[in-house]
Sequence to fold (995 residues):
Amino acid sequence: MPARPVRDLPRHRNLFRMIFAPTVWAVHFLLAYATTAIWCAKVGGDVARLAWIVTGYTVLAEALIVWFAVAMWRQWDYMDDFDYVHDGDTDEDRREFLGHAGFMLACLSFVAVIFTALPAWLIGTCA
Amino acid sequence: MTEATPGDLSARSRRRDADKPEARLAKGIYPPTEEMLTAPVDPEVSKAQADRLRAVWDDPPGWRYWSAVNNSEVGVWYSMTAFGFMLIAGGLALVMRLQLAVPDNDLISAERFNQFFTMHGSAMMFLFAVPMFEAVSILLLPAFLGARDMPFPRLSAYGYWAFLIGGIFVMGSLLFGVGPEGGWFMYPPLTTIDEGVGPDIWLLGLSFIEVASIAAAVELIVGTIKCRPPGMRINLMPLYAWYVLVVGVMILFAFPPLIAGDFLFELERSFDWPFFDPERGGDPLLWQHLFWIFGHPEVYIIFLPSIAVAAMVVPAAAQRPMVGYNWIVLSAVGTGFLSFGLWVHHMFTTGLPAISLGFFSAASEAVVIPTGVQLFAFVATLMAGRVKMILPMLWIAGALAIFTAGGLTGVMVALAPFDWQAHDSYFVVAHLHYTLFGGMVFPLIGGIYFFYPFIRKQRMSERLGRISFWLTFTGFNICFLPMHLTGLLGMPRRVYTYPEGVGWDTLNMISTLGSFVVAAGILVFAWDLVRPKGGLMKERNPWNAGSLMWAHDIPDQFWGVRSIPYITSRNPLWDQPGIVERMDAGGYYLPDAQEGLRETIVTSAIDARPQHVARVTGPAWVTLWAAAFTGGAFIFPTFHWYPPAIVCAVAAVLCVCYWLWTSTALIPDNPEKDVGLGLTLPTYVSGPAAPGWWGVFITMLGDMTAFASLIFGMFFYWTARADFPPPLAEHAGAGWVAASALLYGAAWGATRAARTLNRHGRGAAARWGLGGGAALGLLGAAALVGSVTGLDPTSHVYPAMLWALAVWTAAHTLAGTVMQLFCLAASIFGKVRAEYDAPIWNTCLYWHFMLITALVSAAAIGLLPRLL
Fold:
């Protein structure tokens, strides 16, 4: 039972919010890949500037993911009843389930975005 | 808990809602009250209902059995066919192992060896692994969801027949010695200069099967999101359904790039458009990109369904709910996403920039996180429960061991510097077989042992199962473990023989011996599968499992479920006492078939609130004819026989139109129906409440992916080649392109207006919109093709690419026109009316996507090259 009443809103029924963070990962990945491909083919040379561009993408992507992780954490509302199972047939269970799954996907995406950015920082060459 | 939204639309709200999809809504009481769910059911009434249901859902008698479309029949045919192809492909592997058993062997020629390894890989991937997932899901998913059938039964049957025809065609090529020889990934230029028909057989035959796969994926996605039983909210779905959803979506984004690649490849082979020919501006690497954008997610498309099977076996073995349901959903979705960032790790040796390789290497390591989470959730469940080492669990345990080993070598080869050493060696052969056997074959066989009592209402042999397991498990390791070493000692893949005394002799002999032990294990399983087993089981739930499927009927009834239950738990059979008895008695939804129609309940996507009674299609021959003609349309071009191919394509379209006209979106006698437990549901819906709308939407998402792959191709040429577009190249006619964009905009507008006009009861005006839209669309296509007719597509890849985009768009326009004309005819003959307008909604939806395709094409043909 909820410790305090929460209104169930349409966005709490939105499956796409759950996959927003991994979508940010995918867009970040594609941008990093496309920028590198174009840079190495058309500009060449100075990889340090490329690394700065990828860093910019990364900061932006991580900001979006964190912002969303906070929203999903709120939707999960873990601190009201410490529920992490969500196997009931109520609106609250469904809402908190989507929030919980979305929050964890955001955490995974956060790590995966850092993974993606690492090569731009560590590898200093197009060759 | 709330009452269902009142359904009667007042005059005012009717006006406001005139353009909304729901002309009618559910009425009455939902969710059902406790008294309703415990009210006694009159046995006499129940028996009469059961008789009516049985008559409606029974298979056709005699030879007409083959016109059946029930998921229980199609699923069995599908999985047995896929298993048959697997045995053939396994046989090819045994011949290859015999050839490699000793050095300098001449058992088979190099040419035959090439055909064998090509078809071994192609068949295992395209004819076994992916179809097997779809077959098993078609067979099991409705049972997990307490549904009567899949939403589009005839589409499953069509997909099956297409698969059978395509599979026989592709495998049959081996008997005539003309099979493809270029490896399962068909790299150009080796395959573009091949003079035989092998590559064409591969491209067209497998494209045909890919179409069938996408059809099944659409069916499964719609089934998962729209055909759940009332009350089964998204947080209560069986994990199997989650995996089906994720894998279905992955197929939708993974297969279309390959279809786009096949399209370009076949244009090169048939008409000499130089997409992969470097001398005329092309680039063979584009094929590698498109192939592996498909090919790597494909590995997970194979792996995740098997994990789904494990996710059903593990809780039954541990006799407790899965630990970390949320974690598994997280990892399924996460793996689904990350697996699309791995494709270049198959291309580490192609000379891409080091930073680019790094991105893919990083993603390949990141995907380990969600994959590991799933395995740990299984281990945690087993530790937390009281494990009964049932036979299916033995196979799953073997799978976990083998897959983990394959995953570890995967981490190794995902590191570019290691891969440079191991690339194309037997190390990779060992790695991929560890992942695929552990990730697919073992869980699948375990799953068959687990689900067989549901499928055939009989038990498989415990003893034979254990013999089969230990033979397969030991044989597998004897065969493939030494291959790591063979590879590190330098033996390359795909060589038909090797010289004596380079240190590979003993290892190869051991592998060959092991391969025959595996074969023996698989044959024991195959025998256990088909041998006569006497009478039916007595108990319905032999594993004491909690999922809804084990409420099945013994002996089998074709109705799927006697009545569609109201679900409040993840493991209804454990947590909802009396549910099976009440289902049997017809005490839940839709216990009757008064109208003599096949029906199932459609619910909302997230909370599974009942929305609609869907009339699903029954047995038909037209699906078979449609598949046969589609087959003709793909197979004749292999031999450059274009006139019969065109005849077949037209006939296939006619078959599909006949099928849609006679059996879908039929206007019901009564617009609403009492489905029991105080609930009345509409019998006809259009727009997003209707499964058909979702089918179109999901299909078009896949189509957009294919189109995006072509656009990717254009950018790829631009980055990879200095001469794209070539300096001084002739461009497409700007005026024509602009005219085309305007015409497409008008065609879309007319179609969209027709939907609103029709809903307002202005049928005549709507018909003008549909007819005019069709004419404008055709003119738009003509203008787009007209803009490129002055260019020679064989001269350089730039004009070829423009041509390919124009042809792609024009072909889609033809399909869109057929849909508009279908709606026009339906409106004239009264099949579409003001509130019965599902075909127009679907056509409009198609045209939304069509408009995007047309405008992007126009921009890519007319605008982009001038900017580049």
